[in-house]
Amino acid sequence: xxxxxxxxxxxxxTARVRGPARQSSALPHTFTGxxxxxxxxxLYGSNLVRIPPEIGAMSSLQEFTPYTSYRxxxxxxxxxxxxxxxxxxxxxxxxxxxxxxxxxxxxxxxGRAVTADLxxxxxxxxxxxxxxxxxxxxxxxxxxxxxxxxxxxxxPVATDVLPLLVNACSAACLQVLPKPPEDxxxxxxxxxxxxxxxxxxxx
Length: 203
Ligand SMILES: [Zn+2]
What we know:
Layout: E1 14-16, H1 19-23, H2 31-35, E2 40-42, E3 63-65, E4 75-76, E5 87-88, E6 113-114, H3 125-128, E7 147-157, E8 160-168, H4 171-175
Parallel strand pairs: 1-2, 2-3, 3-5, 4-8
Antiparallel strand pairs: 6-7, 7-8
Zinc ion binds at residues 136, 138-139, 168-170, 173.
């Protein structure tokens, strides 16, 4: 059957991370400058530990495949901005809060942080989950001079429910996030081992 333009796939328009990039644990924030037109993003078996929020700029992305990237435990909330994203294949057990095992979410900074104290282009990824925090995940406005409210939320993305990290400019932005599906923590939360989650399937 001839491929339709929507499902067409060639080495030029399919993103498959190879070679040194595949072995790397982080993608540069600038990668989406190259990737805006990619319809597929295949991270099969990568060693990535996080994906930068800039993935939200991949306006042509239809298929996201982080399958067997076992070090990817969560995704940036900006993934929900990709307007064409329809299919995903993830390794569920690797995900924070998954229904089978309910592994904990990393603890976030309680309360809020004032960005005057932070260089937003160079933050500690171990503490903030990214190396740069530039824009509010919810309203896509600059975080310069704003407070940063970080939270976890589990939401449907393509064909999965994914744990998402939100960088919001206000508590009001956290309040307009959609309600998570049943069987997931029902509000944005700060994670940590003390978080009460629904019972795991394999408990
Ligand atoms: Zn905001």
